[in-house]
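TASK: fixed-backbone design
INPUT:
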């Protein structure tokens, strides 16, 4: 990529921000060296890695732990050097982190294949973690357990030290007032006592030091010299043993230096991917769709409406993917205040000419597109809505800002032209070229002509181009040239402030006269200025203003419709989930009822066998029981039938259902009125609840309630009789899904509630709505206390505000 363009588009700031999410120096170096790739496959792979990392972070907190860049220490060990305890502890922590990450991605290799591939390159521990743990404490001290020799030397050191301290303590006691202080201290690694200078010579001793005033001498009594020597020798031996142990451990690290350095590089790559994912979460970014140009051929641009058949052939070979950025944001601006832009020109557009007032956001819009293209090809998700699309560019060039240079005697115009010349030498049809204020800084007529010629050349090359300009000639050029489109930044005349919204398809207006008028310039001057402008230009400005207002109105209406559609889809999904839950509960109830039926059939069979036995003993004929046995078999067949999903026992109507017709919703076992009809579904008002159901689930209210009859025969012998008289069981009619208690007294309402719950339970309803109103809350409190005590109620809850809120309680009945 062009280095100067990366600087102009502020790409280094993206690197710096990415660096802040890296956890150790090796990955920070990779972040600062990150560049957009010119390999399409590599760019896709990088984006896929970031996506995998974001998916992983959504379910698990993963990181590199306490890893360090151990490559310098490993190099030292490979050359035979001895590592200090802290270096060895860093190596231990890094290897532990690598081991944990390898375990994670070995288990999740199918879910995160790209991350698992990187993690496969992490090093093995080769027993070094255990070795360091055995030798060093967490504070970097060599443990006694490091070797038997070290343990023995440290025991001897303790004994020698205690013996020396005991002897010196005796001197403290005997010397009395000859000492400056009764303490034992050290000088040059030897234990001494502080003797007052005037008593020098009264104690035979070796002088090692004196105080700054000369009043105190630090002396080693001659009788303890040998003890000090012995202790010093033991300490030197122990230190030498520690060095030997650390060197041995360092040699073990050096044996695997190549693997460790390669592993750290992979760990840094993995941490960089994690950093990209964290940065994407901060930006609320999404993965872009990268499209590659195939069989691209340049064509000469033609005036719109004048293309020949040959031009059509040329255009068909130029099948370049388009830019389609939805709600794109500049990644370096505050996401709370930045205004998103939509960059979505029609397919076949190769150049966008942006016009508008100064400080209106033209430069930010250019940088946003360029920076997002660079981010995408670096494997970074972009701050735009999901589905945003970008072409894959082999290079990105930008000329933005003031290029004047005193040292090189370059004016603003010369600086821009010098930069453009450099860019024109390198571009091809796979390049993105971004030019700010093209042709500015010189005579307007010549600058406009030069800008048009440069834009014409860029179109001939076939590269994708974004240009910001004030020249009206380029607006005309964009309007009349195939593959070029106008764009503009809105300006609010009322507030005299830019809105920063980018509009594709409309050129910008200067608004100079309107702004001057609102700022208070005398009206005669305004009128005189208007007289100098061609009437066609004034009419064009008025037409543009009308078009812009209409587009804004249409855009607002579209946003309202989108929000309404989203709400409707959410409500539909919620209702479908509720109906699915109701169906599951219905099937569960039926399964439970079937199990109870099977049990009752088994008991009935057992009773029949008992009756047979009694009849045999009474020498009565058994033919009387055959009818009962046949009915039992029929019942048993019905009980054993599988439970079908959403079956209905009511005959479906043959005619079409009409608006206002009263129907029963089969899945809810509730009646309502049809309020809306679709091709395959309908909306039904059930009390205060509206539901949407498939037409196949609706039945007209008609016919009598079905009855289930069961016959029982009566047999007797003497005074003994078995009473099996016929009886009829009516199926209980549903009391409806809703009970309205508004306007009733509390006692009256509770009595009605009790009767209603009994009927609802008997009818097999799964849930009911009790409408008690809000009011003072007395009825609500009494109803909910009654529901807590009711044996028919399992639980209850308050619905959402749009379903009644505090004025309604929904109760789930026992099954």
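OUTPUT:
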């Amino acid at each position: 990529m062009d280095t100067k363009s990366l600087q102009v588009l502020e790409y280094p700031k993206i690197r710096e921000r990415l660096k802040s999410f890296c956890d150790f120096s090796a990955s920070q170096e990779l972040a600062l060296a990150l560049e957009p790739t010119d390999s399409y496959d590599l760019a896709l792979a990088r984006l896929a890695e970031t996506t995998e990392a974001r998916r992983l972070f959504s379910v698990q907190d993963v990181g590199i732990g306490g890893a360090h860049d151990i490559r310098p220490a490993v190099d030292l060990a490979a050359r035979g050097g001895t590592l200090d305890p802290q270096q060895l502890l860093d190596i231990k922590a890094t290897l532990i982190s690598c081991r944990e990450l390898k375990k994670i991605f070995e288990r999740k290799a199918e879910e995160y294949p790209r991350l698992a591939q990187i993690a496969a390159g992490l090093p093995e521990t080769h027993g070094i973690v255990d070795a360091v743990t055995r030798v060093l404490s967490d504070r970097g001290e060599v443990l006694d357990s490091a070797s038997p020799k070290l343990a023995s030397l440290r025991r001897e050191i303790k004994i020698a030290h205690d013996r020396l301290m005991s002897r010196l303590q005796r001197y403290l006691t005997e010397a009395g007032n000859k000492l400056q202080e009764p303490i034992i201290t050290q000088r040059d690694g030897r234990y001494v006592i502080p003797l007052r200078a005037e008593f020098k010579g009264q104690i035979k001793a070796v002088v090692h030091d004196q105080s700054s005033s000369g009043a105190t001498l630090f002396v080693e009594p001659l009788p303890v010299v040998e003890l000090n020597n012995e202790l010093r020798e033991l300490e030197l031996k122990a230190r030498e043993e520690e060095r030997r142990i650390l060197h041995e451990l360092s040699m073990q690290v050096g044996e695997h230096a190549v693997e460790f350095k390669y592993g750290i590089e992979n760990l840094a790559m993995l941490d960089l991917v994690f950093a990209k994912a964290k940065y994407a979460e901060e930006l609320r970014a999404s993965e872009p769709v990268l499209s590659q140009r195939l069989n691209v051929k340049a064509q000469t641009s033609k005036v719109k409406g004048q293309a020949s058949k040959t031009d059509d052939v040329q255009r068909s070979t130029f099948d370049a993917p388009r830019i389609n950025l939805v709600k794109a944001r500049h990644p370096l601006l505050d996401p709370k205040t930045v205004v998103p832009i939509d960059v979505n020109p029609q397919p076949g557009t190769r150049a966008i000419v942006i016009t508008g007032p100064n400080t209106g956001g033209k430069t930010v819009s250019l940088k946003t597109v360029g920076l997002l293209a660079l981010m995408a090809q670096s494997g970074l998700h972009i701050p735009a809505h999901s589905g945003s699309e970008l072409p894959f560019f082999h290079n990105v060039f930008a000329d933005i800002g003031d290029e004047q240079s005193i040292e090189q005697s370059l004016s603003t115009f010369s600086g821009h032209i010098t930069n453009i010349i450099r860019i024109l030498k390198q571009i091809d049809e796979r390049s993105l070229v971004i030019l700010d204020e093209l042709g500015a800084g010189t005579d307007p007529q010549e600058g406009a002509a030069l800008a048009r010629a440069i834009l014409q050349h860029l179109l001939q090359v076939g590269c994708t181009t974004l240009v910001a300009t004030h020249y009206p000639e380029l607006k005309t050029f964009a309007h009349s040239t195939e593959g070029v489109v106008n764009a503009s930044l809105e300006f609010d005349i009322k507030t005299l402030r830019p809105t920063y919204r980018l509009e594709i398809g409309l050129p910008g207006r200067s608004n100079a006269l309107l702004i001057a008028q609102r700022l208070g310039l005398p009206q005669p001057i305004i009128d005189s200025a208007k007289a100098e402008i061609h009437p066609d230009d004034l009419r064009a400005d008025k037409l543009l203003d009308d078009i812009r207002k209409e587009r804004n109105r249409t855009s607002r209406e579209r946003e309202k419709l989108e929000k309404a559609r989203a709400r409707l889809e959410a409500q539909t999904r919620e209702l479908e989930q509720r109906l699915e839950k109701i169906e599951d509960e219905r099937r569960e109830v039926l399964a439970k009822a079937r199990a109870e039926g099977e049990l009752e059939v088994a008991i009935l069979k057992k009773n029949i066998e008992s009756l047979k036995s009694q009849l045999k003993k009474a020498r009565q004929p058994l033919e009387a029981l055959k009818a009962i046995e046949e009915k039992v078999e029929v019942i048993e067949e019905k009980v054993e039938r599988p439970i079908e999903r959403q079956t209905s026992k009511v005959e479906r109507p043959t005619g079409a259902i009409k608006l206002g017709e009263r129907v029963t919703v089969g899945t809810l076992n509730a009646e309502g009125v049809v309020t809306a009809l679709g091709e395959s579904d309908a909306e039904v008002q059930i009390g205060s609840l509206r539901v949407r159901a498939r037409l196949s689930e609706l039945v007209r209210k008609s016919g009598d309630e079905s009855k289930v009859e069961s016959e029982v025969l009566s047999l007797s012998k003497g005074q003994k009789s078995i009473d099996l008289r016929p009886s009829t069981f009516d199926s209980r009619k549903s009391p409806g899904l809703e009970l309205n208690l508004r306007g009733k007294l509390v006692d009256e309402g509770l009595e009605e509630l009790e009767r209603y719950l009994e009927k609802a339970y008997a009818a097999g309803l799964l849930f009911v709505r009790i409408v008690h109103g809000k009011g003072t809350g007395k009825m609500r409190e009494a109803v909910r206390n009654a529901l807590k005590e009711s044996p028919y109620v399992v639980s209850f809850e308050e619905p959402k505000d749009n379903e009644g809120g505090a004025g309604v309680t929904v109760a789930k009945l026992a099954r």
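COMMENT: The CA atoms of residues 94 and 132 lie 12 Å apart.
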